[in-house]
Each structure stands twice: as structure tokens, then as C-alpha cells.
Design a protein that fits this description.
There is one protein chain. Helix content is 16%, strand content 16%. It is α+β, with helices and mostly antiparallel strands and 64 residues long. Strand 2 and strand 3 (34-35) form a beta hairpin. The radius of gyration is 12 Å and the shape is globular.
Length: 64
């Protein structure tokens, strides 16, 4: 799912401490920066919601 980032989303990320990047996912392998399920994850890593224009959410995200 692709979400166009607006001020409301930026505010909610800060207010609720929303986690949605690979680095917060249970399936993320921090050693080689890959997804344990084999999904390409370049567009899901290292996202700063305060500076990006869109966010790509992963369907396999599971909070670690």
C-alpha cells in the first residue's frame, strides 16, 4: 500500500510513535538488512516520515 504523506500522518507518527519500517519488523534481518520472507525491502527501510512524500507499507509487517 502506498500512502501520500501529509501533515496529519506526520503528526500521528510523532504523537503515537507509529512504527512501520523494516527496522521495526519482526521479519527484518539486521545483519544483512534483508527480509526473512525474501521480499525486496529497499522502499521500506530507513524512512523518515517527516521528510518523505510517500510511504510504502509492507503487507508482511509484524511489530517486533
Amino acid at each position: 500500500m502506498i500512502l501520500v504523506v501529509d501533515e496529519r500522518f506526520r503528526h500521528e507518527v510523532l504523537m503515537y510513535r507509529l512504527c512501520f519500517t523494516c527496522e521495526s519488523c519482526a521479519w527484518f534481518d539486521g545483519e544483512d538488512l534483508s527480509c526473512s520472507h525474501g521480499y525486496p525491502n529497499e522502499s521500506h527501510r530507513g524512512i523518515d516520515a517527516q521528510t518523505v512524500e510517500r510511504v510504502v507499507f509492507c503487507k508482511e509487517f509484524e511489530l517486533a
